[in-house]
């Protein structure tokens, strides 16, 4: 296995994007992407946890055995999220008021567990850190894109309340694209999330156009392997 | 890795798995315990600061010259739960009181709402302190996202009439949000409940209990100035 950072980042950001190609972490996606700002907040928080979880698990990968790896990963990830939650609450309290809603949701984010299983448990610490960062940024990208679509269609604004998340210097991001917009409620409700996601998948090309590249890197979808089994979450052999 | 216990034949033993899983559980629990110990005081201080900020929002500064956070009285509400009431005094006389009410939000997660009521039973301020409502839908109860919550100011049990204390969908006077009726409905109901609480314990809350009634038994003395 090579540690080609360029391909790690290309995969994480686009070709093997958590949402658009792997179709993981869709539950928090539906819940928070009512605005682009919420998507950005959730994406950044997830990136932090993905990065640390990948580093910790890659560092412990020689100790963890195949049989108990899942409970060990779950414990490590849940502990990391709890630590992050408490630290942000105590020392970055203003950020916590904005992000506090999203942080506990990361525990159930299967993308973190997915990367631990598919990448960090097999690769070196540095490559795993790069993968965590790339996957997190790719997730952020997808969340902001889908949140932006839903926000524009649903309430006619873009990046509303961004200054609450990023500080007043980012107030210029807040845009009202359609003034006197009556709102399109469906887009803000969960069905809107499914609709936008359904249009984003084919539009991104990750879903059908990834070709062999996706089978080679990271998670694969159901396709029979040499033994005739259909691995659901299994790293493809090179 | 030269450590003996890392050899593959040892790692296949059941005892290795047990020790590994137990060790990780112990380590993570210890880390969380240490972090909790380190952050508890800071978190409590931040929450007290938040409380002070909230109290200042629901009770205008012109109402008091005392330290609100320290002048409290605990009164049991209808369900028997103690409610901590913060008294805003000016010249020793209670001008307004502030307390928290709870409301079941969307999905039955508790919303905490602070309300300030003056001597006449008129709302001087209402703020939502914490909630788990859907971002983009139910969170318009926050002042930072919508001025909806400020429309309670000036209302009382007589304005509007009791049967009008509801969202418009239910025949009342308060707006609901696009896509979220449950949240504002719960807030309206909780604020009215808070006013009922004030009406029921008015003398006690305003510290004018010359006649000792049975209800005083439920009062635990707060810190007096």
Walk me through this protein's architecture.
The complex is a heterodimer of chains A (238) and B (225). With 238 residues, chain A is mostly helical. Chain A has one domain. In chain A, 62% of the residues lie in helices and 2% in strands. Chain A has twelve helices and two strands, in the order H-H-H-H-H-H-H-E-H-E-H-H-H-H. Chain A has helices at residues 5-15, 26-32, 36-59, 69-91, 93-99, 110-120, 125-155, 162-166, 185-188, 190-204, 206-209, 212-216; strands at 157-158, 175-176. A two-stranded antiparallel ribbon of chain A has the order 1-2. In chain A, helix 3 crosses helix 4 (69-91). Chain A is globular and about 60 Å long. The termini of chain A are close together. Chain B is an alpha+beta fold. Chain B has four helices and five strands; from the N terminus they run H-H-E-E-E-E-E-H-H. The termini of chain B are far apart. Chain B is 32% helix and 19% strand. Chain B has a domain at 59-211. In chain B, strands 1-2-3-4-5 form a five-stranded antiparallel β-sheet. Chain B is elongated, with a radius of gyration of 24 Å. Chain A binds chain B through residues 31-32, 34-35, 38, 62-65, 67-68, 71-72, 75-76, 78-79, 82-83, 86-87, 89-91, 93, 101, 151, 154-155, 161, 164, 183, 185, 188-189, and chain B through 1, 6, 11-12, 16-17, 20-21, 24-25, 28-29, 31-32, 35-36, 38-39, 42-43, 46, 49-50, 132, 134-137, 144-145, 178-179.
């Amino acid at each position: 296995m090579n540690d080609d950072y360029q391909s790690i980042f290309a995969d994480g950001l686009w070709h093997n994007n958590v949402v658009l190609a792997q179709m993981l972490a869709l539950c928090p996606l539906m819940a928070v992407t009512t605005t682009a700002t919420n998507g950005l907040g959730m994406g950044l928080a997830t990136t932090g946890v993905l990065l640390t979880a990948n580093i910790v698990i890659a560092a412990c990968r020689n100790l963890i055995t195949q049989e108990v790896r899942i409970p060990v990963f779950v414990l490590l990830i849940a502990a990391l999220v709890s630590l992050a939650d408490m630290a942000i609450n105590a020392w970055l309290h203003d950020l916590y008021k904005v992000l506090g809603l999203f942080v506990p949701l990361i525990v159930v984010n299967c993308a973190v567990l997915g990367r631990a299983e598919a990448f960090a448990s097999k690769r070196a610490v540095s490559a795993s850190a790069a993968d965590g960062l790339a996957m997190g940024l790719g997730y952020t990208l997808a969340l902001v894109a889908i949140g932006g679509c839903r926000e524009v269609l649903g309430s006619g604004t873009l990046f509303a309340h961004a200054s609450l998340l990023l500080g007043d210097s980012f107030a210029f991001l807040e845009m009202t694209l359609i003034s006197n917009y009556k709102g399109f409620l469906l887009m803000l409700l969960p069905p809107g999330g499914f609709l936008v996601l359904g249009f984003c998948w084919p539009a991104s090309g990750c879903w059908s156009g990834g070709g062999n590249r996706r089978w080679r890197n990271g998670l694969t979808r159901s396709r029979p392997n040499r033994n005739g089994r259909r691995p659901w979450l299994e790293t493809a052999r090179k | 890795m030269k450590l003996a216990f890392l050899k593959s034949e040892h790692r296949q033993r059941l005892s290795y798995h047990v020790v590994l899983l137990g060790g990780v559980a112990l380590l993570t629990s210890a880390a969380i315990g240490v972090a909790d110990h380190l952050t508890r005081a800071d978190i409590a201080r931040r929450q007290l600061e938040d409380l002070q900020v909230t109290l200042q929002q629901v009770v205008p500064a012109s109402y008091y010259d005392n330290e609100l956070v320290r002048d409290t009285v605990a009164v049991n509400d209808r369900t028997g739960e103690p409610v901590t009431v913060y008294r805003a005094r000016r010249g020793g006389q209670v001008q307004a009181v502030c307390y928290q009410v709870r409301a079941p939000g969307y999905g039955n997660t508790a919303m905490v709402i602070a309300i300030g009521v003056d001597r006449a039973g008129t709302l001087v301020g209402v703020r939502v302190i914490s909630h788990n409502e859907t971002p983009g839908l139910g969170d318009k109860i926050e002042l930072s996202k919508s001025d909806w919550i400020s429309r309670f100011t000036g209302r009382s049990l007589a304005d509007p009439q009791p049967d009008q204390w509801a969202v418009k969908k239910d025949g009342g006077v308060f707006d609901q949000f696009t896509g979220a009726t449950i949240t504002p409905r719960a807030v309206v109901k909780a604020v009215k409940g808070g006013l009922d609480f004030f009406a029921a314990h008015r003398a006690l809350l305003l510290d004018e209990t010359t006649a000792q009634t049975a209800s005083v038994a439920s009062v635990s003395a707060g810190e007096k100035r």
